[in-house]
Amino acid sequence: MPSGNRDRLRVQGSPARRGPLPGRAGFGAVATPYAFILPAVLLFSTFSVYPFFLLTCTSLLDWDGISATKSFVGFSNYWSVLTQDPVFWRSFGQAGFITLLALIFQNAVALLLAIAVNRRLRGASIYKTIFFLPPILSEIVVGLIWFWIYDGNFGIFNYALKAIGLGALARPWLADPRTALTAVAIIHMWKGFGWGFVIFLAGLQTIPEELYEAARVDGANAWTRFRHITLPLLAPVCVMVSILTILGTMQIFALIVATTGGGPGYHTEVPITRIYHSMLGSSRFGYACAQGIVFGLILLVFSLIQMRFQRRST
Fold first, then answer.
1. Contact yes or no for 170/163 (Cβ under 8 A)
2. Is 236 exposed, middle or buried (0-12, 13-18, 19+ CB in 10 A)?
């Protein structure tokens, strides 16, 4: 018999190799993906889910945070937050005032500086570094520096006013109820404009230069190019920066603690400092947890609005 026929018979007569039956994959194949995500799930559960569960449970109690006695009060803490705490809601208004100033002035300065640096100025990399320095500094350090600048007796700001003949305007800026909130807002804007600058600059660099060149050929001036090219193409970035500004400013805390502590007379109190004072200043841990959940729900609403605006802008 020819060798080719023998080989063919040998192949035909050999038993077929069985593959895995459909729907009966091994345990290892099923468990492997879950093993990869297990560390992340454990970390998230330990540092997010479990603390939130404890926070929710504590918000239903009357507890000073120290004693073993805990009285269940149900939703009484939430009712007190919503109807009997005018300072808490006043703190929202004051945080909203800082947020409004940041949306208008901080983001405007960030956009103008981003446009200037995007024009390939000499030393642009140096400007990028300088403008991004304030956001990476510690809020406590920044607060202490500006506290000395605003000092009513030895502050540089009052000294400069006196040097230019405006000494009548000198005052303890952070201790005066008329100026404390605006002074804190200026510190916050100085520290935060760098984030918007970086994001705006990244957005500007995605706009094709050919569009500007075509507009110049058609005789469009700088304002027309900004209005009809830059702004429309930068709209999604503007929405994102605005929402980040709102969420970030509403959660301002360390800067307030380092400068005014919420004073004078609650004039610079913001939601998180109010929660902080309820917890540690008044030893009302359950009530502070209820304030935190209410505050979180309000921020959740802002986040949902953010998602809706982003969908529309894209």
1. no
2. middle
Higher pLDDT, 258 or 20: 258
By the 10 Å C-beta count (0-12 exposed, 13-18 middle, 19+ buried), 262 is classed as buried
Segment 85-94, tens digit of pLDDT:
999 999 999 9
Quick one: which of 304, 303, 171 has its CA closest to 244? Answer: 303
Q: Is 110 in a helix, a strand, or coil? A: helix
Cβ neighbours of 73 (radius 10 Å): 18
Strand (E) positions, the chain?
61-62, 71-72
Burial category of 180 from C-beta neighbours within 10 Å (exposed 0-12, middle 13-18, buried 19 and up)? buried
Asked if the bond preceding 134 is cis, omega within 30° of 0, the reply is no
**pTM higher than 0.85:** no
* Percent of the chain's residues with pLDDT above 90: 47
Q: Is the pLDDT of residue 246 over 60?
A: yes
**Running DSSP on this structure, what letter comes out for residue 68?**
S
DSSP track, 166-230: -GGG---TTT-TTTHHHHHHHHHHHHHHHHHHHHHHHHHTTS-HHHHHHHHHTT--HHHHIIIII
CA distances from 293 to 71, 153, 154, 260 (A): 19, 41, 42, 25
Q: 20-29, 110-119, 232-241: which range is least confident on average?
A: 20-29
The encoded tokens of residue 126 equal 């140096």
State the residue for tokens 């073993």: 68
